[in-house]
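FORM 12-B: Structure-to-Sequence Request
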């Protein structure tokens, strides 16, 4: 039996590579397209170790119409999960045109090729950043979308609008945007994980690199927020849970959605954790004492955001299964593998 081929753009990246595993486990054939501008061949080697075969990978630009068309034809693509995008908030403020061209250009090109090739199903990577600083917690999909505070965040908002508009125009497309909360962790085998370039911006890779001796002490960005312990609260979700949400969304589109459909879903655990709780949980799980101090607030941080994931549970049959403890243990295992001499 031929397995349905799913194009995973950005499939060598952190979430993309884990989603390739989840797709393969669910009986799909992932086909990766990645330009390796912010990812590494290591992810492909890791996939090979986990799956026992080489996942097809095209080292190409997702903005190129002819290249996409060729891959769709050659690989008989039946659906798309679109991760490929620039994602550095600070950099996006310095280079807005590069961000808009890359993140929105690739989405538009992809949609054109999907229509040309009669491939209706698309899962789009969106972000809880669309909710800004929410007035009410937890956030549901009906919570108001707030003006973006970064160019990166705006590419996600405008991306969602493009998708809504193209479906509203009656095009034969079935699309789900997944609004991710904070993905952390790694595959439990330790073969794939996050590979941030340079000094990590995100909390968990900074923690694991600090614990491994690659970085100095952790700075906690502010402890005077209106939260129980004064540090910011986020919804940290294990990357394999997030990966499995993509498969659930794809299956939902293929089963239930007629031939013209757009919807959005939160992908979070429903639990908020503070920065201090993450630090303390890491210490408990790994037995490593972390060296940290409190510094000033980081510009642009929201105080608290965590998901109401009821809609995903009820309509996609998906719910997060893994705990923060598991995610941190897996992130640490991955860090040890990455740093093995
Ligand atoms: N934090 C620290 N010290 C660090 C790093 C982070 O205290 O060294 C704190 C932050 O202030 C924040 C929390 O840890 O309170 C989480 O920070 P991350 O950078 O890990 O995650 P964010 O919630 O800021 O970022 C996430 C995504 C981004 C996205 C952003 C806005 O990772 O891609 O949400 O939606 F842009």
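FORM 12-B RESPONSE
SEQUENCE OUT:
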């Amino acid at each position: 039996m031929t397995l349905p081929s799913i194009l995973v753009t950005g499939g060598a990246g952190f979430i993309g590579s884990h989603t390739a595993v989840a797709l393969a486990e669910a009986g799909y054939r992932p086909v990766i397209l990645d330009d390796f501008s912010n990812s590494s061949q290591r992810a492909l080697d890791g996939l090979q170790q986990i799956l026992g075969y080489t996942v097809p990978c095209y080292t190409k630009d997702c903005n190129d119409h002819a290249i996409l068309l060729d891959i769709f034809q050659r690989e008989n693509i039946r659906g798309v999960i679109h991760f490929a995008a620039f994602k550095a908030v600070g950099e996006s403020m310095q280079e807005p045109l590069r961000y808009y061209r890359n993140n929105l250009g690739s989405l538009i090109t992809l949609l054109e090729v999907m229509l040309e090739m009669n491939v209706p199903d698309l899962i789009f990577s969106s972000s809880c950043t669309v909710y800004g600083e929410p007035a009410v917690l937890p956030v549901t999909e009906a919570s108001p979308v707030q003006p973006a505070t970064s160019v990166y965040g705006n590419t996600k908002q405008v991306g969602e609008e493009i998708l809504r508009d193209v479906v509203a125009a009656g095009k034969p497309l079935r699309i789900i945007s997944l609004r991710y909360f904070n993905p952390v962790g790694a595959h439990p085998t330790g073969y794939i994980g996050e590979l941030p370039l340079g000094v990590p911006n995100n909390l968990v890779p900074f923690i694991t690199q600090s614990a491994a001796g690659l970085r100095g002490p952790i700075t906690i960005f502010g402890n005077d927020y209106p939260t129980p312990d004064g540090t910011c609260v986020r919804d940290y979700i294990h990357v394999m849970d997030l990966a499995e949400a993509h498969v659930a969304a794809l299956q939902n589109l293929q089963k239930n959605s007629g031939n013209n459909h757009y919807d959005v879903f939160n992908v979070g655990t429903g639990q908020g954790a503070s920065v201090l709780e993450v630090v303390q949980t890491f210490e408990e799980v790994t037995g490593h004492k972390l060296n940290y101090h409190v510094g000033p607030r980081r510009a642009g941080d929201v105080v608290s955001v965590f998901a109401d994931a009821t809609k995903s549970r009820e309509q996609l049959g998906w719910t997060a299964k893994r705990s923060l403890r598991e995610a941190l243990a897996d992130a640490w295992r991955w860090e040890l593998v990455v740093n093995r001499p």
